[in-house]
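Notes from the 1:1 (GR / supervisor)

We went over the backlog. Supervisor wanted to see one worked example end to end before approving the batch request, so GR pasted a single chain during the call. The sequence is below; no edits were made to it. Supervisor asked that the structure be written out right there so they could see what the output format looks like.
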Amino acid sequence: MGLWRGSHHDLAMQEADAQTVLGDFEDLTFEHRGEHFRFHQQGDRFFVETAGADGVTDDFEIGFTFGVEPLQQYLVRLPGGRLQALGVAWDTRPAAVGGQRWFHLQPDEAIPPGDVLHWTGPAGNWNAMCADCHSTNLQKGYQLDGDRYETHWSELDVACEACHGPGSAHLAWVDSGADASLDGAGLEVPLGSKRVWQLREEARIASRAPPSEPGGRGEIDVCAPCHSRRSRIAEAAHGDTFLDLYRPALIDEGLYHADGQIEDEVYVWGSFVQSRMYSAGVTCSDCHDPHGLRIAEPDAVCAGCHRAEAFDTPAHHHHPPGSAGASCVACHMPSRTYMVVDDRRDHGFRVPRPGVSERIGAPDPCTSCHSERSTGWAAETIADWNGGSAAPRVHPGEVLHAGRRQLPGAAASLASLADDRARPSILRASALRLLGAQQDPAWLPTLLAGLRDPEPLVRLVATEAVEVLPPRDRWIALEPMLRDEVGTVRIEAARVLAPLRRGITDPRASRNLDSALEEYREAQLQNADRPESHVNLGLLHDRLGEAKLAQRAYQTAVRVGPWFMPGYINLAELHRTQGREPDSERVLRQALTHHPDSADALHALGLLLVRHGKLDQALVSLERASILAPGNPRYAYAHGIALSSTGDLEAGLDVLARAHERHPGNPDLLVALATLHRDAGQLATARIHAQKLLALRPDDPGAQALMRQLE
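Structure output shown during the call:
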């Protein structure tokens, strides 16, 4: 308790008063791109004068503080039981390093009322976005009918029971005089005795001391829910595994760089489970005190297991002793800044590979310090340190990078990486997801093998990937997954098998699928305040042939999140499949009133206009969609095909060729380029694209047939 008092967990959230509020409320004004904030006090109460959701300036009382270091945010009560975090925060760092000031969390953007990022909007909503990791025993209490929250908690901060579960049995253990018959000190989630790391005299790196009992993975399951990028799938229950309660993000583009380095705000778990430290059995509390949390000197923590005589020396780090470059964490835990001032270290503990970084466009720790130098210089320098030998020829990051771009040969490398059980499961699962996205039947055996993998993350992604199988094969492959021991796998199997439900006659099989489908529904309702969940429910109803329920779910998604485009897109598509094209167009135009620059809505509207024969209007929408979303090859494909169908073949080919340069491994673009050049009589150029397609998909009968035509 003594270590916990004053820790970041203890101070995660506090009622606003003179002791807890760190910001300057002495009638201070802050302006940001047209937004006005005035911070002031009335006795012991704190207020901010600013524009609310309706754009009208008003005084809002600060109800709670949120965090303490390196910034403090402030929560305001709004109607509907909502607590909203202001978009302006107080920099609690010392003034000497730029702190003691108000700053905006979106410094490069103007955020008007009504924007999803405005402090009154969903991105600033504490109940949905922050509460369960900053409070203990939180009950979100969202009421869908009234679109309101009745949120409750046991303790305002992250207290003992947040990690250890209900404490009544522990108190009974204490009152009993520490009766040894009550295992785990009466804690519902006993973390167990940890093995000790032992740095033997002849060793460079510590190993676990006897006894060799397993330990620590339960501890990571306790930490992971709040220190990971994830979505909840079940009501939190102390003692359940992480993957029974949450679905974590993988090494996906936009979240992580291809080599696994952190990119977006993904917290710690996803990078740590990639590390050799995790594979060796290191757990969170080996480096962090679980109650006080602070690390006074990170390099000293490293030296507890990595002998200083071997590692804290110029022979290892090649920098002057005591310099920034000599620090363990500078090279192996590079930091990235979030929320403007919050530096967070990558927990992948990687060896710097500047050559790999240059090839895949990832950050390089060397040139983050040596900013005047190139990554090529850094790669050559490290090679010289190693006696001229280069780093391993193919790095996993290069494999994922090639898979993201669908480069020729990527599939084979992805399959090899996914099959390698010596690699971290999150890396293998990420490779398998990219392999599945190729939709190449040649790699189906690898996907099917993933269903039998001992790692649940791999089984989860394999379940997701085999959705492309014909119905009978899909049922044979996935029916056992409905009984998987891990919740995330069961509900993914239910989602993929849902379209087959009406054809199942075996009572036991029906019960298994119905049970998993109910788990899936409950998982979505965990986040009923988010439009994504209602879109997922709509898709489920659609797969089950329940069109009216699907329509209702999509309409709920639009009502809960009018800013969330997939709600509109799926509702419009449902109308289309039901033969209600005017309703489909109405929904898409409604979406564009909210977001005129939504590439998804523009693309869908363009396709609708093509079906109606309004090609001139369609081209405007399709072109705009492809410009707004150059990373989506489908949009450029649709634009190029539409142009060529109007008779402007040259313009259509130009759009497709430029898209092919951005997405050289996309087979649809290659097919379009080959066939359009063929039909125009440009056989030599058509053959070039057909050869590229065949190199990408050598076993594809369609690619083989196209090549034979052109020969």
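Supervisor's comment: Residues 13-160 form one domain.
Batch request approved.
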